[in-house]
From TrEMBL:
UniProt source species: Abeliophyllum distichum
Cited Pfam families: Transcrip_act
Keyword Transit peptide set for record: no
Recorded coiled-coil stretches: 71-154
Protein name from the UniProt record: RAB6-interacting golgin
Length: 196
């Protein structure tokens, strides 16, 4: 029964891992506006992250298998010792001291199992926190790239508008026959702005 529950838990964790992987993949795309270098960095980061995740899952499964194996042995030993204890209590108890030693070892093993369980929970929390931080930083990167694109578009629009105004001024001056009245400094500034 305990092994069945552990298998169900592992299946849920595997499904959750695939869901989180999908969320990461989704968060790395931002409507195709990234450069090739950004895509390469995102793929590299995702590949590294997935490799670490697989390593964590593998180690986690190894610990769980060891814990399950130990639990199975300890349960069998507990049942066997309970039977032995009942038989010994019905008789004069020449093995009481040995039984007490074994029971003490079982208690020690149970404490170690508890510590292992707490370690597993701590690693799971660290994994979740790392995943959240990764997604948050990636979201921030997407926002910064979007803002950079907006700034570039605004700058380009402002420069084009200024160039159009200068072009109209020059055209007006030429039509009016006043091109000779434009100061050399103004002409220099116009040429400088056009070359930027």
């Amino acid at each position: 029964m305990m092994q069945s529950e552990m298998q169900q838990e592992e299946a849920c964790e595997s499904q959750q891992s695939h869901t989180q992987s999908g969320q990461i993949s989704g968060s790395l795309s931002f409507n195709g506006t990234s450069t090739k270098e950004d895509d390469e960095m995102a793929r590299s980061a995702l590949s590294t992250f997935m490799a670490k995740e697989e390593e964590i899952q593998k180690k986690k499964m190894e610990v769980k298998e060891r814990v399950l194996a130990q639990l199975g042995r300890f349960e069998q030993e507990n049942r066997r010792l309970a039977i032995i204890r009942e038989e010994l209590e019905a008789l004069a108890d020449p093995m009481k001291k040995e039984v007490a030693v074994v029971q003490k070892k079982i208690d020690t093993a149970n404490k170690e199992l508890k510590t292992l369980g707490q370690t597993c929970q701590k690693k799971e929390r660290e994994y979740k926190e790392t995943l959240d931080a990764f997604n948050e930083k990636n979201k921030e990167k997407v926002q910064l790239i979007t803002r950079l694109t907006e700034l570039l578009n605004e700058s380009e629009g402002a420069r084009m508008q200024k160039l159009e105004e200068l072009s109209k001024n020059i055209e007006t001056a030429r039509r009016d026959g006043c091109s000779s009245s434009i100061s050399p400094v103004y002409q220099k500034n116009v040429l400088k702005y056009c070359c930027c």
